[in-house]
Description:
seven-stranded mixed beta sheet, alpha/beta, 4 helices, five-stranded mixed beta sheet, single chain, 12 strands, about 15% helix
Amino acid sequence: RVHGENGYQDIKMSFGEFGELVLVIGDFHIPHRQTEIHEEFRKLLVPNKMQHVLCTGNLVSKEVLEYLKTLAPYVHTVRGDFDDNASLPETKVVNIGDFRLGLIHGHQVVPWGDHQALAIWQRQLDVDILISGHTHKNEINEYEGKYFINPGSVTGSFSPMSNDVVPSFVLMAIQENNVVTFVYELRDGKVSVSKSEFSKPKKTATR
């Protein structure tokens, strides 16, 4: 676990080794529950450093979507239960490296955040990695050989599921069949980073 912005700088310098950078973020609830992203996070979300943004929804305001478009050339977002933008899809599948990544908000999953229920969506979308939000609690979980990611709420907006929401987002570095995942949390004004890795078997050449 790496603490503070200096630790982030050290990690950022080595990101080029890992391939494509993917920001996983969601549950902003701006302006209804929070007014903005915390300054400590905004300093880390530098434009043109990432290739993709995968957003789990509940942006609520169109200004948030416009902000995400300044961060990366490819922005993929789904509709949350508080989003009025009817043009946003309920689900989305994106191919990055050797991975198929599925994106849903998470309110469709019953019970919310349940691993077995999430696995049903993973199989329906036929993806290697399923990304969901809604619970406002970040989680990285490997289940039945698949990878499940919840970036939490980047603004730390309140949730009926928790009285203590920690602001968070996830950064993934994807290279071919390997993904390195960094979870960023903001506690007492300080950013901490934790790292994990996941790989899928390489496809063998067939004649």
